[in-house]
Amino acid sequence: MNMRKNVSYLYRAKVVSVYDGDTCRADIELGFGTILKNKTIRLSGIDTAEIRSENKDQALKARDRLRELILGKEVIIQTIKDRTGKYGRIIATIFLDDMNINDVLVEEGLAKRTSTGKRKKSNRKAEITKEKKPNVTQSPSDVAVKLEIPDKVLESVSGSQEE
């Protein structure tokens, strides 16, 4: 029996850069003083125009909006199954306060919802290069808690730092 089938994990993170409308980099707190630095995050379930495409103007609007929303800010990321995608990126939904950033981009017409979270095939060279694996040995059960993700949980994770 695979108990991890639909497991979600929440992490605090600080966004350090935004490449395009659906890709950013962040320093991710795993707990117990462990931080994954400068990790690439692919926003799950959405797709935006590519910077190196004929839709460059739309891609730049999406990138700039994502920068405006999250660059330099403390966010909560929700990962599914706590694994990386095909290209070594962390696939996640990003929350800032009560906002689901992935949904905001769709609602503003800057991103399209994808049914599987997978983008259409493309010839992008950037996608082919796999990111280095972190220098941290981790077991998801050691660094995260299995959670349902209601709004109240997000509030409690991002709101207080009690001991």
Layout of strands and helices, then pairs:
Blueprint: E1 8-20, E2 23-31, E3 34-43, E4 46-47, H1 56-70, E5 74-84, E6 90-96, E7 99-100, H2 101-107, E8 112-113, H3 125-128, H4 140-143, H5 151-159
Oligomer: single chain
User: Helical residue percent?
Assistant: 10-25%
Count structural domains: 1
| Outline type | globular
Q: Enumerate the strands of the largest sheet in spatial order, edge to edge or round the barrel.
A: 1-2-3-6-5
**What is the CATH architecture descriptor?**
Beta Barrel
Q: What is the CATH domain class?
A: Mainly Beta
The secondary structure category is alpha+beta
Strand fraction band?
25-35%
Span between termini: 35 Å
Given the structure, what is the number of helices? 5
**Biggest sheet: strands, sense, closure?**
5 strands, mixed, barrel
Label this structure with key terms.
OB fold (Dihydrolipoamide Acetyltransferase, E2P); alpha+beta
Could you provide a short overview of the structure?
This protein has 163 residues and is α+β, with helices and mostly antiparallel strands.
Report on the structure:
The protein is an alpha+beta fold and 163 residues long. The chain has a single domain, classed as OB fold (Dihydrolipoamide Acetyltransferase, E2P), CATH 2.40.50. It is 24% helix and 34% strand. The chain is built from five helices and eight strands. The strands form two sheets. It has a five-stranded mixed barrel with strand order 1-2-3-6-5. Strands 4-8 form a two-stranded antiparallel sheet. The longest helix has 15 residues, at 56-70. The protein starts with 7 loop residues before the first strand and ends with a helix. Mean pLDDT is 79; it is low at 122-148.
